[in-house]
Amino acid sequence: MPVPVPELGSYNFVQETKEDLPWADLITLDFSLYGTPEGNQQLAKTLIKAVREDGFFYVKNFNISQERVNRQFAIGKQLYETPLEEKLNLDPVSGLRDRVEVYNIPKFNGDFKHEHPEAAQQHLPEIEEFARSLHTEVLDPLHTILAIALGLPEDYLKNIHKYEVKSEDHLRYMKYGKFSPEENQKLNGLWGRGHTDLGTFTLLFRQPVAALQIRNHTTGEWSWVKPQDGTLTVNTCDALSFLTAGYVKSTVHRVAVPPKDQQHVDRLGLLYFSRPNNDVELKTIKESPVLREQGFVENEFEKSGNPVPTMETWTFAKQKWQRTKNVARGDKKFENAQILPGWNEKVYA
Q: Which residue ranges does the record assign to the Non-haem dioxygenase N-terminal domain (predicted)?
């Protein structure tokens, strides 16, 4: 049931770019098909094609209104109007880096404290309802469909992504502050270098400032992700790659300098990062006949004979690497660092 919501200013999206960019041709999953055996099978075929070929795809008709999404953008806007002094006193998982501002809100399952700036605190019931709906309306269906595609019981992946069990999932409000044309030239066309996300799926709500680029698994070429009305953009991440021994690849992506007709504005993002429960071992799912038949039976940890980390161990190891301070661009020791026995991280151009 919807919760009472305080008054909130509207959020106005900027105009989409008029530039003709090399857009990625991504698959769209239509969740209006979800819920019947025939519809789920059709979606499973579409999803496995999407995650195998691109690792990025769109989802539409996911039962969360655009009005509710717009309110979350408005909350994010209010949050980033918080005075700098208050921002700098935020929890260490949030804060400022370069001109990127990040604010994460963890699960509402009793495992985490919820002490936030007033801009977020006054809307916390609404934020909780929104975050929980992402599980019931988006992530649970995705986990069900992917389980079907892998020949697993339908609840297999849902059972290792339970909302009430501790995991490092979080809703994120993220702001990329604009640069001057001269500053953008010095950045060599990039606001954020290529990387992979560490969880299962990342959900990105449509916002019209073009900047997200994805790297093709086969050719290594980069293409732009086009904002699509009424959709979520979803990408596959590290944990899912480990669980499927690379059958589903973690997708490399980056944030480019926006087109010239959008460089005068800040870029506000609304994202949700889904991760397996903390106690889940990131070993290959042996029960999948699809993985066995395709020869995907060992991930990098298993092949090397090193201990397979739990999701908690993996999360904190990668985050420690990500948060390394004072790293010079081109530092090879950082860009190919071993973060756990059997795994070296990588920074992409």
A: 29-90
